[in-house]
Amino acid sequence: MKHKIKSNYVKWGITTFVVGAALILFNLSAKNIVNPNELIIKTVDVLMPFIIGFVLAYLMTPLYNASVRRMRFYMNRRGLEDARTMRIAKPVSLAITFTVLLALFALLLYLVIPELISTIADLVVTLPETFDRVIAWMQHKAEVYQIWGLIEEAFQNSNEKLLDWMTEKVLPASMSVMDGISTGVMGIIGALSDIVIGFIAAVYMLASKDIFAAQTKKMCCCLFSSENAAKIRKGADVINQIFMRFVSSNLIDGLIVGILTCIFMNVVRWEYAMLIAVIVGVTNLIPFFGPFIGAIPSIALLLTVNPLHALYFGLFVVVLQQIDGNIIKPKLFGEGVGLPSFWVMFAIIVGGGFFGFIGMLLAVPVFACIYQYVGYRMGLKLKKNQMSTDLDDYRDPSLYDMRETKFKGIMHKLQQMLKKKGNENNSGEEDIKETEKGNK
Fold first, then answer.
1. Which of 310, 415, 432, 433 could form a disulfide with 299 if both were Cys (CB 3.0 to 4.6 A apart)?
2. What is the Cα–Cα distance from 266 to 285, expressed in whole angstroms?
3. Cα–Cα distance between 270 and 320 in angstroms, integer?
4. What are the Cα distances from residue 15, in Å, to 5, 19, 20, 25, 361?
5. What angle do CA 348, 262, 329 make, to 5 degrees?
6. In the structure, what pLDDT confidence band is assigned to residue 90 with cuts at 50, 70 and 90?
7. Dihedral sign, CA of 48, 49, 54, 59?
8. What's the DSSP call for residue 418?
9. Which of 40-49, 115-124, 220-229 has the lowest mean pLDDT?
10. Which three-class secondary structure state does DSSP give residue 386?
11. What is the mean pLDDT of the chain?
């Protein structure tokens, strides 16, 4: 007797077959055709102007908002309508904001570029002299310890190997070096074009940020319930506050540290004052490890002039970071981003390992957002279970008391063992004395 196959089974079978075939094709294409790393790099490269524009617009938002509020206040006092006030205040504030940005960028180039060119020219002159001084010092020490002959013999024996290495390795590699230089020049041109396009994109983003915010709010209300949409908006506000507090405080702190470094180096009349001040100020944006990262190239530059200057500069960096960490940063950051010191170090190491310098810059606020979200979810869960959310309620007050009791118990047992051993020694000495008396 034949059974008729139900149509639902046929539909599910066809659906399963199509889904499986699609997954197999996607897996093959992902492995053999598209490299995920290359795809990510290409995507970031294409979107780089918009990323730069978003960063510039985000950094200039406080100045733009303050300018709009101030102009709106003055115009409303003069009796102008609010709609007309906003039509005038927004474009004028936009012009003021990007005029300030261009002025700061031009000032930075004016201060850094001549110093950088002068530094490169000085290094071209001083490095050979420094190398000659080092060779002369090595020769003097070698003659003192009578090993210069061995060094000369080693140099003569290595001449033939050096020539072979030059002809076989260096000359063929010079072509790749030229290719690398041309690639670097094209990369610089591409970076400049990204900055220009990003600047234009920042103008449009900042001018349209109210529309973008309203569209995002509308989309949240469309996709989620009213309660969830309100939670998302609240979370976005918290993230914005964390990032804005961290970025603004960090920029001001880096500026103060750079100015203090420049003032100190100009007072003591050391070389490369402006360039080193910029290096120290920029690397100071990285929490925890930034001062050490900036001190290394600065000390290397000063070593080409005077080793004592490099030593004194290292001591100055240590003192400056103590002042910055204990006086300047607490005043600027206030409560900070709500992240303990261990997690700050953890975030910087992980962010730098995965994303380099940019990862080190953004690791702390990103991890602070994650840290606060986890704490928020834990608090909701504990409140739902009618449990305390105070961390002190979960501490063990008898932890150190128990360890102290154990330590006292161990010390008491050790004293008893020593006392018992002393008694045994004393009894042994008494037995020896009695034996000696008996022998006498």
1. 310
2. 23
3. 17
4. 16, 6, 9, 15, 48
5. 40
6. confident
7. positive
8. H
9. 115-124
10. coil
11. 75
Using alpha carbons, list the distances in angstroms from residue 83 to 61, 79, 88. 21, 12, 9
The HSE-up count of residue 180 (CA atoms within 13 Å, CB side) is 5
Token digits for 232?
A: 């998302």
Q: What is the CA radius of gyration of the chain?
A: 35
Instruction: Compute the Cα dihedral for 392, 393, 394, 395 and give only its sign.
Output: positive
Structure tokens at 63: 């100045």
Distance CA 391, CA 368 (A): 18
Is there a contact between 249 and 332 (Cβ–Cβ < 8 Å)?
yes
User: Which two three-digit tokens encode residue 114?
Assistant: 């001549």
- The predicted structure's pLDDT at residue 2: 46
Reduced to 3 states (helix: H, G, I; strand: E, B; else coil), residue 208 is coil
**Structure tokens of 258?**
């750079």
Residue 383 pLDDT greater than 60, yes or no = yes
* Residue 348 vs residues 222, 289, 335, 358: alpha-carbon distances, Å: 37, 8, 19, 10
Residue type, 42: K
Type of residue at 398: S
Q: How confident is the model at residue 431 (pLDDT cuts 50, 70, 90)?
A: low
Distance of CA 87 to the CA centre of its chain: 40
In the predicted model, is pLDDT for residue 103 greater than 50? Answer: yes
- Token pair for residue 250? 């960090």
pLDDT in tens, 206-234: 888 888 888 888 888 888 888 888 888 88
The DSSP result for 134-187, as a single string, is HHHHHHHHHHHTT-HHHHHHHHHHHHHHHHHHIIIIIHHHHHHHHHHHHHHHHH
The whole-model pTM stands at 0.64
Q: Count the neighbouring beta carbons within 10 Å of the beta carbon of residue 5.
A: 9
The structure tokens listed for 187 are 């990369």
The string of pLDDT tens digits covering residues 165-196 is 656 665 555 555 556 556 656 667 777 888 88
Phi, psi angle pair for 145, to nearest 5°: -95, 10
| C-alpha–C-alpha distance, residues 16 and 3, integer Å | 22
Q: What is d(CA 82, CA 97) in angstroms, rounded to the nearest whole number?
A: 21
Q: Does position 130 have pLDDT exceeding 70, yes or no?
A: no
Is residue 198 within 8 Å of residue 101, measured between CB atoms? Answer: no
Q: Two tokens at 126? A: 């001083």
**CA 419 to chain centroid:** 59
